[in-house]
Amino acid sequence: MRHPASAYRQLTVQSATPLGLVVMLYDGAIAALHRAVDAIEANDVQNKCAHLNRVLAIIAQLEGTLNFELGGDVARTLKSLYVYARAQALKANIENSAEILRALIEKFSTVREAWSEADRRPSTSSPAPEGEKASHAPAPAPEAVSYAQEADPRSSISRATSTAQKSPYAPAPDSDLGSWRLSA
Questions:
Q1: Local structure of residue 121 (DSSP, 8 states)
Q2: CB contact set of 29 (below 8 Å; sequence gap of 6+)
Q3: pLDDT tens-digit profile of 85-113?
Q4: Which of 74, 94, 173, 181 would you call most buried, defined as having the most Cβ atoms within 10 angstroms of its Cβ?
């Protein structure tokens, strides 16, 4: 017999929207970052490493789902955030720094909230006007874009627009509403 919590988790993932899945990934990263901070403060090297490895795996998953063709500047901005986050997690591990992880928690929480807001927006079910390309996924809120740019000030990423046509998590052009694809 399956464990009830495992069955609930599986059902939650299966019924989530594509943006809801992104929010879940951010939730997992934030929770693992909190646990890594606790492990650092308890001088628990083994758990610190385990939780930071989880964070790195989630960052890799988030990065792997970016669609640069449809996402354009937004996808490139998120890519820079993920590169920055990975570097900060590794730096925190080496320096045993809870402060670096707390700053990363703040950044991820801000971007997570933007994705959550985008997921809560009602979708438009009316067809796109003739000549316009329809897209079914809302783009991240502008806060996510500007915050990600702030994360790596050396990058020369221009401010992205927050249009549905540029969503890095939009479905493939030939797909229908029922078959979303998160990978590029």
A1: S
A2: 54, 55, 58, 59, 62, 108
A3: 999 999 999 999 999 999 999 999 999 99
A4: 74
Total residues belonging to the chain: 184
* pTM (predicted TM-score): 0.64
Find where tokens 């693992």 sit: 32
Helical (H) or strand (E) element with 64 = helix 45-64
Closest CA to 183 of 30, 80, 15, 70: 70
The answer to whether residues 141 and 168 touch, using CB atoms and an 8 Å cutoff, is: no
Buried (b) or exposed (e) across 133-162, using 16+ Cβ within 10 A? eebbbbbbbeebbebbbebbeebebeebeb
CATH class of the domain whose range is 17-120+137-155? mainly alpha
Q: 166, 71 in Cβ contact below 8 A?
A: yes
Q: From CA 61, how far away is CA 81, in angstroms rounded?
A: 13
Where in the chain are the domains? 17-120+137-155
pLDDT tens across 139-172, in order? 444 344 333 434 433 332 222 223 333 344 443 3
